[in-house]
Specification:
Peroxisomal Thiolase, Chain A, domain 1, 2 domains, three-stranded mixed sheet, about 25% strand, globular, HMG_CoA_synt_C_dom
Length: about 375
């Protein structure tokens, strides 16, 4: 029985910052951003758009009435959670009007959380083939104004509906993974912004990729000649590019060139949305399928997932017949094209806004009228959504 991604979509806020504007404001050569890290724009969320809202807005795009009744497992993977105890999934369950008879949980392991959710969902469906699982990878990347990580911020969510006999991608049951305790990136409970050792994190990312690639070859999980594309977690596109480039000399030239060509298609959305942590790998999957029309049913894709701290996994999926009918490239391009470009002053003002934390009441207005959900107020230490 094949199990995998039956439907998928993404949502990102309706405003963005152009990185040329940011470079000029920070007195930096724009090519340091455009070429050096391979990014062009980054999404900027408003105060009414937290991880719950982003997740619910992504999910609304793919769920039918029947889907809502068949979902037996709801997972929100995030490192931007809104509560230390209560799962973001419970808020999302109510907003999406899902059946009460399901498991609703929140998962955390940095950017790896989305893959942890996908693999847990696959195992759930294997045991309950008549049910479906909904995985929502939702995050807001924040590093602070005028910090070294400022240019790699972003916001958005990816929704993955997992089922038996999927219509997009069948996930292979075997994969390779590795975990180790390293301090390359973290965010203490008392901090609104993440802390990172950028160069060290890149080294760990690439080392774990090479370890898993070698392990997969030793276990004969796949042959490089059979892989039609290699997708990577993309905190910024240059990071994934270095992973693909590390295979040069290990692969036949025709295989390396094929993976490199398709990698360029996979980064198109990430370059204008920015880093969305748990959803970044899956945004690259959507980008690849939207931009490369040469892919066919039966093609095998490799996916490298990485979460600082650190956990990594390398797994494969196979495109199924008719997958093209489940894609929505035109709606994605329309959503991105209609976003508002913020000035530096508007971006900095937006960034510095905060929700109250003293128990007082705070009313919020909806920043994206095209989206179905938003945070309407905070009162008595509780969040209220529409």
């Amino acid at each position: 029985m094949n199990i995998g991604i039956d439907k998928m979509d993404f949502y990102t806020p309706a405003q963005y910052l152009d990185l040329v504007d940011l470079a000029q404001a920070r007195k930096t050569d724009p090519n340091k951003y455009l070429i050096g890290i391979g990014q062009r724009q980054m999404a900027i969320p408003s105060l009414d758009q937290d991880a719950v809202v982003l997740a619910a807005n992504a999910a609304e795009k793919i769920l039918s009435t029947a889907d809502r009744q068949q979902i037996g497992l709801l997972i929100v993977a995030t490192e931007s959670g809104v509560d230390q105890s209560k799962a973001a999934a419970l808020f999302v369950q109510q907003l999406l009007q899902l059946s009460p008879y399901l498991r609703a949980i929140e998962l955390k392991e940095a950017c790896y959380g989305g893959t942890a959710g996908l693999q847990l969902a696959r195992d759930f469906v294997a045991q309950h083939p008549q049910q479906k699982a909904l995985v929502l990878a939702s995050d807001i990347a924040r590093y602070g104004l005028q910090t070294s990580g400022e240019v790699t911020q972003g916001a958005g969510a990816v929704a993955l509906l997992v089922s038996a006999n999927p219509r997009i991608l069948a996930i292979a049951p075997d994969s390779v993974y590795q975990s180790q305790n390293v301090n390359d990136f973290w965010r203490p409970n008392y901090s609104q912004e993440a802390m990172a050792r950028g160069k060290f994190s890149e080294e760990v990312y690439l080392k774990m990729f090479q370890n898993l690639w070698t392990q997969a070859q030793a276990q004969k999980l796949w042959q490089p000649a059979d892989l039609q594309a290699l997708l990577c977690h993309l905190p910024f596109s240059k990071m994934g590019l270095k992973a693909v480039r590390s295979l040069q000399g290990q692969l036949a030239s025709v295989d390396y060139e094929r993976l490199m060509r398709r990698f360029q298609a996979s980064v198109q959305y990430g370059q204008v949305v920015g880093n969305i942590y748990t959803g970044s790998l899956y945004l690259s999957l959507i980008s690849l399928l939207d931009h490369d029309t040469s892919l066919q049913a039966g093609d095998q894709l490799a996916c490298y997932s990485y979460g600082s701290g650190a956990v990594a996994e390398l797994f494969t999926g196979t495109l199924v017949a008719g997958f093209q009918e489940q894609l929505h490239p035109h709606s994605h391009q329309k959503m991105l094209a209609q976003r508002q470009r913020l000035t530096i002053a508007e971006y900095e003002a937006e960034f510095q806004q905060q929700l109250v934390t003293d128990g007082s009441a705070q009313e919020l207005t909806q920043s994206d009228p095209t989206a179905p959900h938003y945070l309407t107020k905070v009162e008595a230490h509780q969040r209220f959504y529409v």
